[in-house]
Amino acid sequence: MATAGRRPAFTLFEMLVVLMILVIAGALAYHSLHSMLPYYRVNAGLDAVRGAWAQARARAIEEGRPYRFSVEPGGSSYRVAPDSPDYWQGGDGPSDDPLGRGLILEQSLPSGVRFTVNGEGPTEPPVEPDEDVVTEKPVTASNWTPTVTFLPDGTTREDVVITFMVRGTRPVSLQLRGLTGGVSLVRDM
């Protein structure tokens, strides 16, 4: 026979134990996810540069003119545009280009990610991540360091190694072979 007015319920102690278990699980999950963030940032930077290289190479082949990939010295921004002074002296390039309007791509790596080109540049990632935006600056030869030029036959003028660094993970390098245009990934030990 059931007692009238009484129904089964959780005690305060049982509720506190469940809450404590949830807080501990949440703290462990946050720490685990937070420690994986640098790895994902570096991979996002790798994918972005690899994609920019593929676009520059494809445009060079399709349009029959060289395309230049340049980086911001000591920064995390890069630029792709036709390898012509008209596209690198400011503005959006010539409006009367006989080959048509060329691709102009300006991007920035994810916050906290920096790169070095052929071993030149900062050797340590920044302490504090910065914003994910390309800072507004005029397009002049002094703002961008030419890194690689893709030729209309699919090759490049030079081999290049770009090393990506972010605090909390090992550096990773992209190697571009000039003769073949092939890209390989090297995880530094």
Descriptive labels:
four-stranded antiparallel beta sheet, 2 helices, 8 strands
List the helices and strands and how they pair.
Elements: H1 12-63, E1 67-71, E2 77-82, H2 85-88, E3 105-108, E4 114-117, E5 145-150, E6 160-165, E7 172-176, E8 183-187
What does the model show?
The protein is an alpha+beta fold and 189 residues long. It is 30% helix and 22% strand. The protein has 2 helices and 8 strands; from the N terminus they run αββαββββββ. The strands form 2 sheets. The chain has a 4-stranded antiparallel beta sheet with strand order 3-2-1-5, covered by helices on one side. A 4-stranded antiparallel beta sheet has the order 4-6-7-8, covered by helices on one side. The radius of gyration is 25 Å and the shape is elongated. 24% of the residues are buried. Mean pLDDT is 80; it is low at 128-139.
